[in-house]
Amino acid sequence: MTKYRLQVNGKPHEVDVDPDTPLLYVLRNDLKLNGAKFGCGMGQCGSCTVTVDRAPVMSCLLPVSMVGPRAIRTVESPGTRWVPGVVLRQAFVEEQAAQCGYCIAGMIMRATALLDAVREPTDAQIRAWMQPNLCRCGTHLRILRAVRRAADALTAAPARKKR
After folding, report:
1. pLDDT tens, position by position, 32-60
2. Where is the 2Fe-2S ferredoxin-type domain (predicted)?
């Protein structure tokens, strides 16, 4: 066992785990942040997606020893009105993008990373960015509409334009 200091959702945490422990297990078991889900354990579904320094990461594949001091953000991350994750959550509700809800945290985190990286994404960019994450319920078109809705809302937001 080794002690690791992690920065999760803006707060410091210390965990004592095996270096090979996937970040997903640390988030769920040690920090009790259950938004990221265990789907396949092989990085093929995206239900475990979180962001590390604003980049989407499948946390089932990332050993905690590789995280270091980088900022981890999960779907539980609080935010202000114009933070992409907050706007995305509302857009997913408005577009009725969730059915069973299992993939949604990963979808929101992948989309959050997109909206952090690309100011005004095209529909093609949204499709390409979201492609690694799977939804077994088949709400992909609603999910894409939700990301588009959030992107449009953020583009129109006065706070977003000043960045």
Report:
1. 999 999 999 999 999 999 999 999 999 99
2. 2-78
